[in-house]
Amino acid sequence: MIKASNISHFYGAEQVLFDLSFEIKSGEFLFLSGESGSGKSTLLSILSTLLKPSNGKLLIDGEGVGTIKNIDYFRQSKIGFVFQFHYLINYLSVYENIALAALEDKKQNINKILGELGILELSERYPNEISGGQRQRVALARALVNEPKIIFADEPTGSLDSKNSQIVYGLLAEAVKSGTTVVVASHDMQIENYATHTIRLKDGQIL
Ligand SMILES: Nc1ncnc2c1ncn2[C@@H]1O[C@H](COP(=O)(O)OP(=O)(O)OP(=O)(O)O)[C@@H](O)[C@H]1O
User: Fold this and answer.
1) Going from the N-terminus, what domains does the chain have, and what CATH number goes with each?
2) Residue 34 CB–ligand 1 contact under 6 Å
3) Pocket test for ligand 1, best of 10, 35, 40, 186 (most atoms within 8 A of CB)
4) pTM, 2 dp
5) Could you list the pLDDT tens digit for every one of the 207 residues in the chain?
6) From ligand 1's centre to the CA of 42, what distance in Å?
7) Is 42 close to ligand 1, i.e. is its CB under 6 Å away?
C-alpha cells in the first residue's frame, strides 16, 4: 500500500530524517512511535503527501507521489486525515462539517458513519456544544466519510483522556478490520494494544 524508499528530510541545514526505507501493507495498523523531536510528525506528513521529502521516493497504492496528476482528488478519495486539534468549523453543525469534506457520491455515508461512531444524536449540534472526545469522533467520521484506503492520524488523542483515547483507538482498529490501512504517530504507548505493527523512531532513524 505504501512503499517508502530512502526518505530523508532537512529543515534548512538540519537533517531530521535519515534514509528511511520500509513498507506498509494494506490493512496494517502502523504505530509510529518515538520521543518528542524524533521525527514522527515529519515522517507522517511525508507519508500522507502533505510534505515533500528532501530526498527519496514514496509510492502510495502503486502511484509515485510527486507524479500524481490530480493530487487533490487523490488525497480526497484515498486518504483520511485526523489531527490532534480536530479543525472542525465552529459555524457548521456536526453533520455539515462532515458533509463539507464528503465527495458528492459519499454524502449518503454520513449518517451511517455517525451511527457507527455513536454520535448520530449529535449531528445537529455545533462543535462547541459537544465534548472533546466527541469532537475527535466527529473528526474521525470526517476522515472516514469518503471510505479512504488509508487513514493518517497525528497525535489523534493528544487532547483526550485515557478513556476517550481508547474509544478513538478502538474505532481506528474497527476501520482496520474493514480493510482500511491506518498510520498513527503518537507518544501514547497504549496504541501498541491496537496496532499490528510498530516503527520506532529515534533521532530520525528507525530503531
Ligand atoms: N517546520 C519546521 N522547521 C524547522 N524544524 C522543524 C520543523 N518541524 C519540525 N522541526 C524539527 O524537526 C525535528 C523533528 O520534529 P517532528 O515534529 O517531526 O518530531 P515529533 O517526533 O513529531 O515530535 P513531537 O512528538 O514533539 O511532535 C525536531 O528537531 C523539530 O524541532
Assistant:
1) 25-51+70-201 (3.40.50.300)
2) yes
3) 40
4) 0.92
5) 999 999 999 999 999 999 999 999 999 999 999 999 999 999 999 999 999 999 999 999 999 998 998 999 999 889 999 988 778 999 999 999 999 999 999 999 999 999 988 899 999 999 999 998 899 899 999 999 998 999 999 998 887 888 888 888 998 998 999 899 999 999 999 999 999 999 999 999 999
6) 6
7) yes
Compute the distance from residue 179 Cα to the ligand 1 centre, in Å: 31
Can you give the three-state secondary structure of the chain, one letter per residue? Answer: CEEEEEEEEEECCEEEEEEEEEEECCCCEEEEEECCCCCHHHHHHHHCCCCCCCEEEEEECCEECCCCCCHHHHHHHHEEEEECCCCCCCCCCHHHHHHHHCCHHHHHHHHHHHHHCCCHHHCCCCHHHCCHHHHHHHHHHHHHCCCCCEEEEECCCCCCCHHHHHHHHHHHHHHHHCCCEEEEECCCHHHHHCCCEEEEEECCEEC
